[in-house]
Amino acid sequence: MTDSERVLKAFLDPPDVFDSPLEVLADEELTKGQKIEILRRWVYDASEISVAEGEGMSIGNGDLLRQIMLALKELDVEIDPTRRPPTRQGSYDRESLRQRKSET
After folding, report:
1. Residue 78 phi/psi, 5° resolution?
2. Average per-residue pLDDT in the chain?
3. CA distance 87 to 33
4. At what angle do helices 3-12 and 32-54 cross, to 10 degrees?
5. What SS3 class is residue 30?
6. Strands of the chain, DSSP E
7. For 101, which DSSP code?
């Protein structure tokens, strides 16, 4: 699998390519923007799992969302909580996760 195929696969299904959000951070082949996009998409998946667990389905993955948010923090991403859609999953769109502007 080529690097571009791997990135596309990670965009579609992050846990199919990475075992944890920390692996995304450690991947030196990915750009910062690609890492943010992969983690953003993983937030949605983790939010769906959280909703399922809240409905009584035992999936045993409650810490995943926290790990993803910590990974985004490592990438110095600013999260705009007002941009969350009105769904049970919540999640974040591209405009809600932005790299912080460096202070000069």
Report:
1. -95, 130
2. 77
3. 26
4. 30
5. coil
6. 77-79, 97-99
7. P
Q: Tokens in use for 27?
A: 């991947």
CA 104, CA 93: separation in Å to the nearest integer? 28
Distance CA 97, CA 34 (A): 13
The CA-based dihedral angle spanning residues 68, 18, 32, 44, taken in that order and rounded to the nearest 10 degrees? -40
Collapsing DSSP to helix, strand or coil, 79 comes out as strand
Enter the pTM of the model: 0.67
CA distance 71 to 53: 22
pLDDT tens across 51-66, in order? 545 555 555 555 788 8
* Cα 100 to Cα 104: distance, rounded to the nearest angstrom: 12
- Supply φ then ψ for residue 19, to 5 degrees: -80, -25
**pLDDT band at 37; cut points 50, 70, 90:** very high
Amino acid in position 25: L
What is the C-alpha separation between 63 and 102, in angstroms, rounded? 30
* Polymer length of the chain: 104
